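Subject: Sanity check before I submit

Could someone independently write out the structure tokens for this chain? I want to compare against mine line by line before I put it in a report. The sequence has 130 residues.
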Amino acid sequence: MRYTSVLCLLCLIFMAVTCKKNDKVAAQLAGKVWLHSFEEDAEGLWVYRPNTYDFPASRGRTGFSLEPGGVFKRYEIAPADGLQEETGEWEQLEKGLVQIRMPEGSNPPVAYRIQVIQLKDDLLKVKRIE
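---
Independent answer below. Compare away.
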């Protein structure tokens, strides 16, 4: 009985070591609406802030959210200056690298990757890779 317990414990440890670990970056990105803080863009990096951030006045902001199950929501400026939602897919390729795919018929229908350069609770800096 003792050997069975030790064997089970070793199996659990082995599985924990070999399983893909949950990426903290993806967990921090998911569940928030990130809006483009274009005033802060620099050196090819795009800056995003949560929609709860106190942005300076602008004529509209684009953004996105990553939802569970691989659902990507892109927010574009609507004709009446609101936000228009388009749905696509996201997939984490590796730590900090996310693949985005928008369906045919979306405006524009694109597939691209974003590399997370910096991520804090209220700041996201990404580099877009076509």
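---
OP: Matches mine. For the report I'm noting this point. DSSP finds two helices and eight strands in the chain.
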